[in-house]
């Protein structure tokens, strides 16, 4: 999967901009290491922070600021700061041209931080999201990915958070009764057959 994306590095702020260009709603977002701007972007409990290059959990901004050293009004590295979203949380897998939607149910801000998490399979992914997500994945040259969405607390619609190019899938495959892996095998086999056909046509020419 994702051979067209092998030489690209996922840039989270760029992906947010591309997602917005494709019609997906994105959170209010700030990328900075300026302490004053971090504190005043979204006040109180309304903001979260996560590493700009991934590899860490999403956490409440105020809690992170309390333990983060500051020098000359700045922290060591920029971070992504966003409005705090609420459940329901949805993950949509794209496998070739097929989409699979799941509810992710967890009491934690970031469900990866706990094993107290449940996954439910949705038979019908929302078309208004999959059409726009498909446009984004085409821009990123991805044929296998998982996109995460969470809910706007004010308006109740789903908001795009990020796209994962090598997502974990075992728990989600179990929740779908094996449909996710079936689609992955089908997509890979279809590509293998097409590749063999191309090779045969080239040899005959």
Give descriptors for this structure.
single chain, 6 helices, four-stranded antiparallel β-sheet, 205 residues
Verbal overview:
- Strand 8 (144-151) and strand 9 form a beta hairpin.
- 34% of the residues lie in helices and 30% in strands.
- It is globular and about 70 Å long.
- The chain has a five-stranded antiparallel sheet with strand order 7-6-5-8-9. Strands 1-4-2-3 form a four-stranded antiparallel sheet.
- By secondary structure, it is α+β, with helices and mostly antiparallel strands.
- Helix 1 (12-21) crosses helix 4 (127-140).
Basic shape = globular
Spatial strand sequence of the major β-sheet: 7-6-5-8-9
Order of helices and strands: HEHEEHEEEEHEEHH
Helix content: 25-40%
Q: Would you tell me the structural class of the helices and strands?
A: alpha+beta
Q: Return Rg in Å.
A: 19 Å
The number of helical elements comes to 6
N→C terminal distance? 28 Å
The oligomeric state of the chains shown is single chain
Question: Averaged pLDDT, please?
Answer: 89
Low-confidence region ranges = none
**Main beta-sheet annotation:** 5 strands, antiparallel
Q: How many individual β-strands?
A: 9
